[in-house]
């Protein structure tokens, strides 16, 4: 299945809504086509000055078609955008769910995630509005127009068919080429610009101190300039695509007129040949027929952008999906979580170097235990609101006294006392308002206030000094007067574990010889064997 089909599947499009949109579009252009044919007949028939009653039905029909065209256009836009907006909402929901559950989500660049879940999902919605529905409507109306003219003058119908192919196939191909140039280079430059801009905005103080802020701004400026250059290169095929439609219309009208004149003859027509009304119809109907092709260059561009956007979205989801799986006790596949018997051990620690699969296993545990487990990631978000509201993320009924006690227990008592408004102090800019260590302690206070029976902590002591970090780890991994009560299960991921903790289960994902005992404890439960398998 292509990336575009996979991405469109994320939209969860309703066939009924798409069919309704196509039907409304066909009715819109059908009204325009019938209006052109009937108006041509009415004008030429009135020129012959027949009795007025002979024209009454045609006059009423012209008015009805003129009104119905606007009504059907409104219905077509309403149903098309309804389907597209429902689809983009469903797509974003599914993407967020997959990113939240994916083990590799943390490896994605923030600029990429922002661009993919924002602009690229909007592009997929445009495929519905600008491509799928217009293409279906155009095919139906092109066939109807050629069939109508073929019933009067087959030669004129042939000219119209060729002209429609030029406008409906040639122009979209040129438009697609233009879009390919703009999107492949331009969208990549836009993503690089978003990444550089987000990095500069989020880390401006640190970059300024390191003397690298100017370099980050230069990178953003270069990416913006690359985007403009790519779009300039795409202008030539786009201009040719724009010119193809009026040229095709002119060729079709002139060709039909010449055919009609030849059949009409200098004597005012021959038996079984062209009548004045038929001549007007084969000349004016093509003008309405090309309205069906007017949207096809835009449809080609939407499809091209949709393919490129779909490739990026699916690449992001593939990158966020589980790629590394840790198997314990020789188990294969998804049994690694069950092999790590968390419920049998009140305090567990996962240690090992970066990339050894600690966070992967922690996320797997979160999925395994569902609502019974609360995962506190190392990059959890701090909101631009008060400290109290930031702590209420895990439990909405946390009061001021509970918040103060939790902050004091994680070592933020003095810091809190120095704040002018205490727990009501606003963290301006979220995480930017605190240091790395203060952020870790705030996130740990959230964990203390949660009610989940299983607490999963990812690097809770990162950015803390060695002494403070070891103290907190000891308090996390003990049931005797520690931060968490003995009734709660705690699993901690850390790079280095102090030697004198009370953890009753330690798993080292970085050891080649799992049977070799740890130097600091012989009473802990160990995993005798494990393998790491790359999942393709």
Summarize the structure.
This protein is elongated. It has 17 helices and 7 strands.
Name its key features:
7 strands; elongated; two-stranded antiparallel ribbon; alpha/beta; about 525 residues
Descriptive overview:
By secondary structure, the chain is an alpha/beta fold. It contains 17 helices and seven strands. It has helices at 3-11, 15-47, 53-101, 110-150, 154-202, 204-209, 213-233, 235-264, 276-289, 296-320, 336-339, 358-369, 387-391, 400-409, 413-417, 436-449, 466-476, and strands at residues 324-328, 347-351, 373-376, 454-458, 489-494, 505-508, 530-534. α2 (15-47) runs parallel beside α4 and α8 (235-264) packs antiparallel against α9 (276-289). It is elongated. The protein starts with a helix and ends with a strand. The model is unreliable at 322-339 and 513-536 (pLDDT under 50).
Topology:
Blueprint: H1 3-11, H2 15-47, H3 53-101, H4 110-150, H5 154-202, H6 204-209, H7 213-233, H8 235-264, H9 276-289, H10 296-320, E1 324-328, H11 336-339, E2 347-351, H12 358-369, E3 373-376, H13 387-391, H14 400-409, H15 413-417, H16 436-449, E4 454-458, H17 466-476, E5 489-494, E6 505-508, E7 530-534
Parallel strand pairs: 2-5, 2-6, 3-4, 4-5
Antiparallel strand pairs: 1-7
Largest sheet: 5 strands, parallel
Question: Which outline best applies?
Answer: elongated
Mean pLDDT: 79
Content-based structural category: alpha/beta
User: What is the assembly state of the chains in this entry?
Assistant: single chain
Q: Total helix count?
A: 17
